[in-house]
Amino acid sequence: MGKTLVMVQIRKVKAMAKLILSMDGLVLKEIPLLKERMSIGRKAHNDIQIDNMAISGEHAAVVTILNDSFLEDLNSTNGTLVNGQSVKKHFLKDGDVIELGKYKMKYLAVPTAPGETADYDKSMLFQSGPLPDVATLGDPMLATTPQAAAGTAAPPAAAIQLLTGSNAGRELLLTKTLTTLGKPGTQVAVIARRPHGYFLTHVEGAKFPTVNGKLLGAQAHCLVDHDVIEIAGVKMEFFVKS
To answer: Whole-prediction pTM value?
Structure first.
């Protein structure tokens, strides 16, 4: 049986969380998630290269911004498991075990530093009290164009207003490139701010969000003024700021 090459390429940026790579109970590597998007696969250009035929050339990716990480299977041949369950997209929680063939990667979130508090309770969306400043996360399917990144184009200002729940009437300005909404483990979606508009995409959960009472498909949905969105049982209205 040939040797297995495990290669990790890291850029020096701020660490957020880490993966512990192992096989058959033997720890092979500790991998800090130092980039917003880290690809995993057999080909050499991946950030985490696992040279094994059971791993697809471009198998999966982990996207991390702030303290949130998402795992996405990149249509791999053998699939990706988290805690024994097959996933396509998954909001990672501390202690989750990712399985790719014979390899396992345990996700360890960075704990909140002393004196710091979380912006909101991630187990629930729109908890009582002030409207939380929901976290943003990167998603390769929703990445803005280079022109947008350079600031050469921008859509009109927009916001969502909560229609139901304890925070009904409150507004959240959509000023970030990606805004995450939902209840991790149940239903999560993101609104992407692109040069040509705002797009809603389902990220996690068996049930898809609805727009104007119609189920969202797998593809990104372009939002228009006064669209009514329902995510994790909470209704909200998207509108363009005049």
So the answer is: 0.45
